[in-house]
Amino acid sequence: MEEKVSYRRVKSVGLIKDIVRGFYEGVIDAKRHGRKVCWCVGASPYEVFRAMEIGHFQTENWAVAVTARGLERPMIEEAEKAGFSSDICSYASINIGYALLLKKGRVPEDLSPELRVPEPDFVFTINTCPSMAQWAMTLSEIFNVPFFAVDVPLFYDDKDELHYQRNILYVMEQLRDAISLIETITRAPYRWDRLKEILAIIKETAKVRQKLFELWCHKPSAITYWDMAIALGAANLFRGTEESLHYFRKIYEEVKERIEKGIFSIPKERCRLLWYMNHPWFKVGYLSRFFADLDAVVVGGQYVIGPYSDPEKIDPNRPLWTIAEEHPTRPYVRTMRYKIEKFLKALATAFQVDGVIFHSPRTCRPNSWTHFDEGEILKREMGLPYLIIEADHSDPKFYSEAEVDNRLQAFVEMVIERKEACSLRE
Amino acid sequence: MFVAGIDLGSAWVKAIMLDEKLQIVGKAAIQTGPSSQKAGEKCFSELLRKCGLKKKGVSFILSTGYGRKALPVSHAEMTEIACHAKGARKLFPDAATVIDIGGQDSKVIALDEQGFPSNFVMNDKCAAGCGRFLEVMARVLEVELQEMGPLSLASGKEVSISSMCTVFAESEVISLIANNCNREDIARAIHRAIALRVSIMVEQIGAKERIVMTGGVARNIGVVKELEQTLGKRIFVPSEPEFVGALGAAIFALERSIKM
Predict the structure, then answer these.
(1) Which of A164, A222, A273, A362 is the most buried (most CB within 10 A)?
(2) Yes or no, beta carbons of A1 and B76 under 8 Å apart
(3) From CA A178, how far away is CA A83, in angstroms rounded?
(4) What is the ipTM of this complex?
(5) Are residues B87 and B98 both part of a single domain?
(6) How far apart are CA A296 and CA A269, in angstroms?
């Protein structure tokens, strides 16, 4: 066999391990010290809870941490034993399975200590995904605690500014209600000044991330989609902390240095790909090496860009508007045409890709059934080939290695063969 | 100079030796059995024997198929999508669509004007519509696999099989047998079910002519006929369709060998 190449990961992304551990230990400490704990289902406004020192975490992020350690199985089985279909979101299966085991006092012994999150005092959700409300209601039933849901409407008209403003105001009003609820639960006045300080850190971090994005687009690639997937938590759940700001500064410096020294993610970059939708978290390391061995690099993708990516839109003096306006950046509440223009075409152009891979998770049908149309439009309007693969974000039983790998390899071969034949002709 | 292409499929391993003028020097095929590696090595030895060559006389070996990574003797590996496209285009220079139905999957490949794959689709989730499906059905009908095609041509009555899950379709066939349906009619229904499934994939990627069918199932005249009827287009089948992947692999081997 030909000698295989190696994948050069950006080392500082690995610092996330300490941030994750510290963050979840903080949640456990909150309960221990008598502070309230909130389980956030979906992409919630964590800064709202952080300002009041409420122990909080995102159930998806927690499920990713469990999956990345290969510990998801007993939780999924517990949820299935309780009657939940194996077709529901695998993040939800893992989280609900854990909730059931926690209630029974039977948390799996091999679960890392920091991931043994305590029971919630309330559950919060933002329904930017159709599963969120049901998931939050289920947790509320299991723990017999209140839940609060913020409804984010579909931004069905991409051009009507009034429609946009009305939707943001609608979300803002609900956030105001959520803050009243927090004041009731914590029996303390809301700390608006602290919220503004946190948003200022988020803004500062967004500036660093924006500069990092420019380096991220460098050709050849010095930081990949897979590196950014590992860093995602710092842009998402851990945002607004000094650790998160410091973390992105470290990554930025390292990537800048790599480019200056000519150290790139893979030694021989013959094709650049965009990844769309989430990815199998249990295969991040494997896939980064798999593509490297094929001389291909998955450079970018919308999923790992994370929230608050535009510092201009963050105004710490208008906290509720800033937080509410973050939600239209979620693809799940935008039209297909908007997603194609803003998330697919814009990123395909920025990253100078040769093809697009759509991941269609078996347990996330609501967010993946437009892939065929999106791919066809992209092919027609940008001439980019695309591939749809079926796997899953957090349930390894839906990842058939022979099937998925064969499709991915065939796609890379096809893209490289055509690209190189094309450049020879030119 | 000699190069070899070895297609390690789920049911059979096929191998082809080419010389530097792209002429076929020899072919070999053996059943895969439980070990792709052993079958691959055995098939390669058989190929060397038939060609009167020694291993060191072969400049480049490229493997393909599901077992392609299991063959230490090969210098490189590529997927069967690239190899079937390459092989089909060699045999039919104006091929625009390749249907490959092998032992455990079916795939449809669109080729651009230069003959490069521009898109492909594969069957999902189960073995429905593949060689393995036909093997199971032949067993239920108690006929030899190679008899399935000719048997179905004698069908006089239309019956249908609705499920494409191999296990459920087997139950349907058993109930058709219990209802005294002719084996000929059942065989045709099985072929039509495969044709319907594969034709959706063909339509998905454009169904441009000329359509070439490769892989072992292309030897089944019943499947080819039903596919032609469903698509309303002629399908061209090479004389040895099961060797097309190995041929493509051997051509890639020659290209790589020249580059070296």
Answers:
(1) A273
(2) yes
(3) 32
(4) 0.85
(5) no
(6) 6
